Amino acid sequence: MADLVRGIKNRKPKWYGTKKFGGLPYIKDLEISGSLIVIEGPDASGRSTQIEMLTAKLEADGYAVLNTGLNRSDLISQGILEAKRNVSLGKRTLALFYAADFADQLEQKIIPALQAGYVVLADRYIYTLMARNTIRGIKRKWSNDLFSFALVPDMTFYIDVDPYTLVHRVFEKRQSLDYYESGADLGISDDMFESFIIYQQKLAKEFVVLKKKFNLTLVNGNYSAEETYKRLEKQISKSLSKVS
Amino acid sequence: MSLSAKKTLKNHGIPGKLIVVEGVDGSGKSTQLRLLEKWLRYNGFEVFRTEWNSSNMVKSITSKGKKKENLTPTTFSLLHATDFADRFERNILPLLRAGYFVLADRYIYTAYARDVTRGCNPNWVRKVYDFAIKPDVAFYFRVPLDTAMDRILSGRPKLKFYEAGMDLNLSKDIYDSFRIFQSKIVDQYEEMSKREDFYIMDATKQIQEQQKVMRERVRKILPKKLKKKTVMEVP
Fold first, then answer.
1. Contact assignment for B86 to A89 by CB distance below 8 Å
2. Quick one: which of A177, A201, B20, B223 has the fewest CB in 10 Å?
């Protein structure tokens, strides 16, 4: 783990998108020296615990770490919370709203930190947003094009947890199911529990597609936090040995 | 329903009509659209008029960012797209499906012009707005920049940061910046005018004269049985 950023010198970032378009055209000659590590996974999969442990380890090793995540942009996260209360919000509106929040964080937080040599740990990234869009009936191609301005992370891990295990963890946390994380806006079922399970299964299925397309590394998250962390750390060193 | 910005309402089997006005600030397009609205209402049509950047939900957030003056071009673009999507999903499309005349004061072409001027990739912006529908008529109000500038600066002398394109570092002087920014937007409009089938309006003409041209053009898309009837003439 100590060699996380060793050997990674100033370099040009990689962007998603095609030759026709992609990246942020008005940022020219951008050079970064940090690393972007993304942790993806469903609600209550233990992402934040993993990120906490990883942050502690990295900082102990002497790295400057920036934690970031979806809905954390100062500018619009409040708006997203308000919007979520407003059930009549359309799928395209929500998709663009989340994309705006992501863009704000990418440009105001992630990129400056990478320029300064930080290790950026992102609690979810464009993949969750893409998966949500697809499940709500938006074409994959549109989401891919939309997020063509995003940076390609150095590593992306997906914490895979069985939906039934998830539901138990959610209840341990707060005894109720979140409206959106249960896909209640989709009208899958009147039964919140059933809706949650079906929605999470749909997300997991979509992540199988995303894993292939975007080269995500799967981490089994069905066990304890310590066990998952061991696996995650192992995967990171494995990926790093390939990089350096 | 899967829509496309390249297809018209008729192609989609939607009964309503979508009429759009575009042009730089001070081109007089809003005045003309309001007069068109009056005329349509007077003749018994159901009309809904919608303005750019007017969704209440998004407005409070954009104004917060605009105050801070730290919006990047991509965030700026996506916030306007969110506003548009909200109005499109909530009002424009449902009303068109119900047979309304929807009058849009600025449409996706404003985003094409402004976002590209701000440095976003033109192909990307078009992809983002791919879910919109092609209007039945898009009027473009062509006006010499000096005329538009005079109209704006005489009525509303205090310019806002983003309105003047100050984020682009075109000039330190806000009036210079505004002028350069607007001229770049005009370039964008002119560049897309043919491709997007703009109906060009000579915005230097008298208000009544322009309105006559507009009504004549809109008359062509009125329902058949009404087309031949005497629809109120312009005085």
1. yes
2. B223
Number of domains observed in the structure of chain A: 1
Domains and CATH numbers, chain B: 9-143+197-224 (3.40.50.300)
Assigned domain for A231 exists: yes
Residue B87: closest CA among B102, B109, B67, B72: B102
Chain centroid offset of residue A184 CA: 21
Residue A44, CA distances (Å) to A116, A223, B56 in order: 32, 13, 33
Domain contains A14: no
ipTM of the complex: 0.89
Distance CA A180, CA B183 (A): 44
Residue B199 contacts A, CB cutoff 8 Å: no
Q: pLDDT (tens digit, 0 to 9) for every residue of chain B, 235 residues total?
A: 556 666 677 777 889 999 999 999 989 999 999 999 999 999 999 999 999 988 877 777 667 767 777 789 999 999 999 999 999 999 999 999 999 999 999 999 999 999 999 999 999 999 999 999 999 999 999 999 999 988 888 865 688 888 899 999 999 999 899 999 999 999 999 999 999 999 999 999 999 999 999 999 999 999 875 554 455 555 4
Q: Cβ of B61 and A21 within 8 Å?
A: no
Contact B90 A91 (CB under 8 A): no
> What pTM was estimated for this model as a whole?
0.90
At position B55, the amino acid (one-letter code) is S
Is there a domain that residue A98 lies in? yes
Interface check for B72 against chain A (CB to CB < 8 A): the answer is yes
State the residue range of the domain holding A218.
35-243
Of the candidates A17, A21, A75, which has its C-beta nearest B64's C-beta?
A75
CA distance, residue A213 to nearest chain B CA (Å): 20
Q: Chain B contacts of A78, Cβ < 8 Å?
A: 61
- By CA distance, what is B59's nearest residue in A? A79
For chain A, the farthest-separated pair of C-alpha atoms sits apart, in whole angstroms, at 54
